């Protein structure tokens, strides 16, 4: 698709959260690297919002991409009612990082 096709079709088929729907004119993003993303005309934009704060590690982080590829080779997703190594490891890392003493309930 071209950037113009994406810009025209996206508002027709995608609910743009956090926005009034009428009159939207989204920037069609072709690629991203570090703190920048680029439209189909090659214009560079600085991502000042970390894409709603969920990508504050930047675009194209190879450590994260490699970890995702490794996980995809195993499986993409299992529901929260199942245990898996990746989720367990991350949960332990978060708790250990917090360094808060656990309160035991008796």
Q: Which sequence of strands runs across the widest sheet?
A: 1-2-3
Provide the helix percentage. Answer: 25-40%
The shape, in one word, is elongated
Number of strands: 3
Terminal Cα span: 61 Å
Total DSSP helices: 4
Order of SSEs:
HEEEHHH
Structural class label: alpha+beta
In words, what does this structure look like?
The protein has 106 residues and is α+β, with helices and mostly antiparallel strands. The protein has a domain at 29-98. The protein is 40% helix and 11% strand. The protein has 4 helices and 3 strands; from the N terminus they run H-E-E-E-H-H-H. The protein has helices at residues 3-13, 50-53, 62-74, 85-98; strands at residues 29-33, 36-39, 44-46. A 3-stranded antiparallel sheet has the order 1-2-3, with no helix packed on it.
